[in-house]
Amino acid sequence: MPLPEKALIAQIRRMVDSSIRRRNGRPNRAVLTGIGDDCAVLRLLAGKDSLVTTDFTLEGIHFRRDWHPPESVGHRCLARGLSDIAAMGGEPLAVFLSLALPRGLRQAWVGRFARSLISLAEKHGATVAGGDTAESPDGILADIIVVGTVPKGKAILRSGAKAGDRIYVSGELGGSAAAVVRMRGGRGKVKPRDYVRHFYPEPRVELGRVLREKKLVSAMIDTSDGLSTDLAHICEESGMGAEIDSSLIPRACVGKPAREVDLDLALHGGEDYELLFTVAKENRIPRHIAGVAITQIGQITRSRGIFVRNPKGVGYELHPRGWEHFRK
């Protein structure tokens, strides 16, 4: 059973204080008052725009306790919000966690979840500054809010793509979805080390910041819902279409022995948390930025619709088939 609410909050507060001490006692300058009062007090910097994002993590939808260790659940819970900040070219500052827990859950599970979440926040310079706890009648629910900043007027939006812009994606795609397919199929135990991009995805915060600082990007989004869906978001917001080359899409190699995932998973599988962005023709993009591989996969077009073509020019229209709640 989890600790009583007051004791649970005190434990999480001690974890946060410990993480600050590990940073040689240098608290986040944006967080004046964190856990322990009715509200967190933030002093956001002059000349900055604030970024706020929120995401649910629900047992049975985003994770299963028999599939995911608590460290993975905590990591993935925060990675979702950090990836949203990265997609705007921002820097995370403060994290708020609301956590509903069933009475029968072991406190050890909660502790491992919280330590992993706090560790990821610390890695990216953010502080867990507050939240809420409650008893859940059935299953674990976590709501994460991440507050970040970006220089005034410099947030990278989905709506800036222009005809002729090239389309790029970071890292590899389909690795997270491949783990889900294997777990749903019941084909043996899935080891996190063989599917790291699913169990411990790395939000591309540094990459997003560099792209914004170097003014390389016209539009950007993270691949939380899958390439087909997220590219459609950019096209819809920009009033454009796109063509992509199926042979150029970087597909993840997963499992043991490692095998390249199917093209279908790379196109439609979500939760890779890579960055998908467009670049004006005059801007040159290196193959690696901030230690992350960058691949050109296509270009933006004036005509509406997204089309996939192979090197021979044969292709088809790509319809969004990534994750969408409530879709039949």
Q: What's the CATH class of the largest domain, please? A: Alpha Beta
Whole-Å distance between the termini? 36 Å
Indicate the radius of gyration in whole angstroms.
20 Å
Number of helices: 8
The general outline is globular
Number of strands: 16
CATH fold description of the largest domain: Phosphoribosyl-aminoimidazole Synthetase, Chain A, domain 2
Percent in helix? 25-40%
Low-confidence parts, pLDDT < 50 over ≥5 residues?
none
Q: Which superfamily, in CATH terms, is the homologous superfamily of the largest domain?
A: PurM-like C-terminal domain
Describe what this molecule looks like in 3D.
It is a single chain. With 328 residues, the protein is of the alpha+beta class. It folds into two domains: 5-151, PurM-like, N-terminal domain (60s Ribosomal Protein L30, Chain: A); 158-317, PurM-like C-terminal domain (Phosphoribosyl-aminoimidazole Synthetase, Chain A, domain 2, Alpha-Beta Complex), CATH 3.90.650.10. The protein contains eight helices and 16 strands. It has helices at 5-22, 70-87, 107-123, 175-185, 196-199, 205-213, 227-238, 263-268; strands at residues 31-33, 41-42, 48-58, 91-102, 127-136, 141-151, 166-170, 219-222, 241-245, 253-254, 259-260, 275-279, 288-289, 292-301, 306-309, 315-317. The strands form four sheets. Strands 7, 8, 9, 12, 13, 14, 15 and 16 form an eight-stranded mixed β-sheet that branches. Helix 1 runs parallel beside helix 3 (107-123), helix 2 (70-87) runs parallel beside helix 3 and helix 2 (70-87) packs parallel to helix 6.
